[in-house]
Each structure stands twice: as structure tokens, then as C-alpha cells.
Amino acid sequence: MRPQFSIIFFTTLAGMAQGLLFFVALLNIEEPVLSAPFLSMLALPVSFILLSLGLVASFFHLGHPERAWRAAMMWRTSWLSREVIALPLVMALTAITFFFVISGMVPAWIWAALLISIFALWICTAKIYQCIRFIQEWSHPSTLSNFILLGLTSGGLLLEFLLMVWNGSNVPLGMSFISGANFILLFLALNLKLWIWRRNQKLKPKSNLASATGIKGNNIRQTSMGFMGGSFNTREFFHHQTDRVIGNIRKIILLMAYVGPMILLAFAMNSPNIVQIAVALLMHYIGLLAERWMFFAEANHPQNLYYQRVS
Amino acid sequence: MSANKQLALVIDLNVCVGCHACVTSCKEWNTSGSAGPLTDLNAYGASPSGTFFNRVQTYEAGSFPNTQTVHFPKSCLHCEEPPCVPVCPTGASYKRKEDGIVLVDYDKCIGCSYCSWACPYGARELDEERQVMTKCTLCVDRIYSETLPESERKPACVLACPTSARIFGDVHDPESAASKAIEERGGYALMPEWETQPANHYLPRSIMETIDAARNDK
User: Fold this and answer.
1) CA nearest to B18 within chain A
2) Is A99 within the bounds of a domain?
3) Which residues does chain B have with pLDDT short of 50?
4) Domain extent at residue B117
5) Is the N or the C terminus of chain A less surrounded, counting Cβ atoms within 10 Å?
6) Domain presence at residue B180
7) Taking a contact as any Cβ pair under 8 Å apart, which residues of chain A between 141 and 200 contact chain B?
8) What CATH number should be reported for the domain holding residue B94?
9) Which residues in chain A are closer than 8 Å to B68, comparing Cβ atoms?
10) What is the pLDDT of residue A268?
């Protein structure tokens, strides 16, 4: 598939906000671990801004953004439609939580509702891809696990950074604990990504030219796709990059999204330092942009079987 | 299969000569009909690009000297279980109950392209200029027309085909020419592995068997 930058920004920004909100809600649902000023002045506004930026990015995906409201109509059948409902729901619950925080006390059910909405949005986002059964790279539960894990890693790193901005290393939980937790999450996410890449490599396409055309006989090949110019079909479903570029982007993903931040976090466990965490967060986000780019690039669409020879 | 009508095309690969008359007649009718315009970008430039509902592709099979060239028209297959319809977030994509035609309401389409991702056949094309998803309508504005002579109330591609490679009819009606062709000549569906149940069918080439038989006779 052609990587869609609007969706790359939407899923990474919203995923990071969801991860941040997840940890904030989890830490505060029993008793307030994070202070109210930190929540009202930093964590919740930052989450809301990230979600808003994601929403804005998603509009760039549409040919007719002025009709976007219609996209909430078909929630009975379409995961995209459900996502269009879930995103504003998370934003609304973030705003409601904010007002509870500034008015004093946040009831546990608000945190619980926020947690549920965060997961609902993750499920909707991942299912948009996972439900397309003939894109075999996407049509697997690991799509959802990967979206959630990378939301947690980016949100966890962002929380660590915000806590350091707020009160240096004198935080309630201890910076080394948070660094350790983020390290473990990154380690899990890295292993999942490597497993997904191995799975993708081993996938056997269910469709081939014989099933796509029904032509009897061996050695079927296309001699003409029927036109010499471009079309939507030749643009939308392929990344148009060489194998070498793809291989290099894989290396960038491993380094920037996973290994680099893990090394920085390993150092941060002993001597927490805001610069280290800021660099780790930035690296991780850039790596995530590349990871999401690759998520599209490595998805093979069976329609490409019909578009192989220009003549 | 429901008892409702399911209009479809049955394409005879024995007689398609790859002339592209169906491609141009489809474009001509639909660009000026209710589905249009099907815009062309950079039409006279170095890399032209345009929206088409129908393409004729060419394939080869076998190895020399027993090779065959197959011309293969491809358009929306109007699946009985269209994967492109339930994913549409706005309801712009729909399958008509009365005749099974899969259509797009261009006034509701937000141009998100999700339906095109959900079609394994690449039958949908986003019109670059109008930014809405477009696809074969089975010439829905011809086949029910009351102003056209009755003999012309067929899809433009069917009328244009010089070898009558395209049979148009109701594949749920066992008495239709389309159903009979599928039944008698082993009509098959594309990519059956995805269980989309395409309504359009293809009639396999039997000429290779004829050629083989002639060879063996010598």
C-alpha cells in the first residue's frame, strides 16, 4: 500500500495521547498518584492537543473533508465509522476529566470510562486494517497488539518527559521505576515488531494470477495491464520504493523507535536526566513515523496482481 | 444466494479480441452520464492518468509452442458479498436490493478511499479531480432508460463489443442467457478464495482444448 501521511500522523499522535492518558488514568484510578496541577496544567492539556492534532491530520486524508460528519453514519458495519465516533469520545472524556480535576476530585468511574474509551479507539483504529481479510499482513491480531504497545511506549516516554519537566527527578514514583517500565515496554514492542516482520516474510499470498484471472495453464504472466499511463490503481496500492530503501527504513525503525530509546532509558535508570528522556522521546516518535510508514509499505494488496506490466 | 435479481456481466474469454472498444465506449457513456465526468489528468502530457470503469488486460499462459494469449476485460464484479460496502463509513457505497448493482452515491462520498482498499480486484478508482470514489455502474442510467430504444438498454460495453464477448443479464434467473452461459460453459468467478461471490463471471477458453485435440489427431 502507499503510505498515507495523514494516517501516519493521526495514528502516531493519537496513539501517544492514548498511551499518556492510559498511564495517567491507571495511576490515578485508585488514589491520586499524580498531582492535580500536573494533570490540569500539563498531562491532560497535552493529551488533548495531541488528539486534536491527530484529528486535524486525519482530515487531510479525505477528498471531501467538508462532508466528514457523514463518516459517523455507518457505525453498525464500518470500523472507520466507529473510529470517527471513538476519537471525539476520548477527547470529550479527556475534557470532562480536566474539569473534574480542576473542580477538586475525579471519581473512579470517570477514570474507568476514560480507560475504556482509550481501548475502544485503539480497537477501532487497528480493526480498520485488521478487518481487510485479503491484506494478509494486516489481517492478524498482531496489528492491534502493535498499535496498543507502541501507543503505550510513546505515551509512557511522554509521561516520563512531562514529569521531569514538571518537577525534575523528585517525582512520586521515582524516575528509575518509570524508566524501567518504559524500557520493558519498548523491549516487548521490539520483540512484537520482529515477530511481525518474520511473519510477513513467511506469508504465502492466497491469491495468484491463476485465481485472479482463472486462466488455465501454467506460467501465467501479464503482458499488458491495459494502459500505459498511470491510474489510481497504480498509485494507491504500492509504495514505489526500491528494496534498498525499504531495507534502510527497516534499520532506521529498529534504531530510532526501539534500540536508541532503550539505550537512553538504560542510562536514565541510574541517573535520570531530562535531556536523555527528551532525546529518547524524539527518537522514538521519529521511529514511530517510519514504523507506521512501513506498516503501509509492507502490506501487499492482491489488486496489484492485475497491474504488473505497462504496455 | 437470494431470490432477488442480480444483474451482471458474463465475459467470454474465447472471443474477446482485446480491441478495447468496451473501454472507450464505457468511458464515452459514463463520462457524460450520471456517473461522470470521469476526469483525465495531463491527458496530452508525458504521464497521462484517468478514471476508467473498465479495462482490458492481456495475459499469456503456457510455454512455447503451446502458448495462449488471453485478453481479459476487468470491471467491478458486483459481488453478492461486496467487501467494499460494509467498510464505507458514510453509506455512500451500497448494493441495490432490487438488482444487486453496487453503486456509489457521489454526494455522500468523502473520498477516504477505504472501500478501494477493501476491494481485492482493484475495481474502484478515486476520481482525482472530483475526489470521490467511482466504479462501474453497469450503466444503471442506460439499462432502465425510457428514452433509449429498448434494444439499447444494455451497458455500453455490451453494445460496443464486436464479438459479443459480453453477455448481460440476471444471474439469479436460471433462464437468462447469462445464467445459461455460466451453467453450460463452466463460468467461473475471480479470486474465489475471498468469498466475495462476484456476480460477474468469466467463460473459460475452450479453444486450447480444440487446438490440442487437432494436434493429437495428426
Assistant:
1) A226
2) yes
3) 1
4) 7-217
5) C
6) yes
7) none
8) 3.30.70.20
9) 217
10) 85
